Amino acid sequence: MVVLVVATASDPASIGPAAAFLAMPGWSPGPPIPEGMESFINGHVRLLKHEHSIIAEDDLDLRWQAATGEDVSEVIFLSKHTAVSNRPALTVHPIGVPHLREDEKPPQGGRPGWAALPNPRIGPWLRLMQTIAVDQGLVPEFEITLEATHHGPITNKPTMFVEIGSTEEYWGRQDAAQAIALVLWKGLGFEEENTVGSWEGNGEKVLLGIGGGHYVPRHMDIIIKDGVWVGHLLSGYSLPMEVPSQGNGKSSSEVGGMWKHSIKVSYDATKAAFPGGEVIAHLDQKSFKGWQKNAVMSYLQELNIRIGKPNDFI
């Protein structure tokens, strides 16, 4: 099994960390895949470089397997991050567009109603990134944060995005690129031969975040603590809920919209990515109106998904 790290030359926040990663020892040229993409090999890691949009190249894990015969265990994408605040940031997040209906076109890749398997490294690598960013002097200038589940491309194995934000001024920053390369180097076990964030399936608890804004601050408060595993993170925009025409919203059947589908597929994907783990929902309760919270809690009870408090994950 190999780890696939994917970069695109069309994005300075993608190719910069990839170049810094390739400057580290042990790399050799790998086989091209039919589309003419370059690849590089280092132990169990394969770095794949192309020149297209990072969110438009679907099924790269399956295409790599078809071209090389190697099974892919996980996919890590390197990309830029944009934000209205323009604040410099290093971010990590799962992907998917589980809230979109079949007749909707995803604005940034993926398949409507789909959630990728979240990479178990997301929580551990957020904490590793924080440590490296502090050591490299990027904090407090750079914010180190999670993002909620969003965008494509379509993948079939556990997936995560690692990004540099939030404007062109920072996408090309060499110190930020070097920090991401160090996260990859240490996180994938090249430094001490111990990978960071490998899931062992030993019954530990996994956080499924429900509610809040794009940077999921209430969930972040928990996940930043050592030992916390994280699956999908569904912000408010991934939980479209239609106001019930009658009733008080205590029953999930009274509230329309794609929110139930979004929760269900995100839970199923998280459960599949953490075999043997206990997936527990954590709600950003203050982000919901009363009828919304009632509906969400009712639906989680229908699915027998435990609702946890912060101390339940530590």
TrEMBL record:
<keyword id="KW-0378">Hydrolase</keyword>
<dbReference type="GO" id="GO:0019478">
    <property type="term" value="P:D-amino acid catabolic process"/>
</dbReference>
<dbReference type="InterPro" id="IPR018033">
    <property type="entry name" value="Deacylase_DtdA_archaea"/>
</dbReference>
<dbReference type="InterPro" id="IPR007508">
    <property type="entry name" value="DtdA"/>
</dbReference>
<protein>
    <recommendedName>
        <fullName>D-aminoacyl-tRNA deacylase</fullName>
    </recommendedName>
</protein>
<dbReference type="GO" id="GO:0051499">
    <property type="term" value="F:D-aminoacyl-tRNA deacylase activity"/>
</dbReference>
<dbReference type="Pfam" id="PF04414">
    <property type="entry name" value="tRNA_deacylase"/>
</dbReference>
<dbReference type="GO" id="GO:0046872">
    <property type="term" value="F:metal ion binding"/>
</dbReference>
<keyword id="KW-0479">Metal-binding</keyword>
<keyword id="KW-0862">Zinc</keyword>
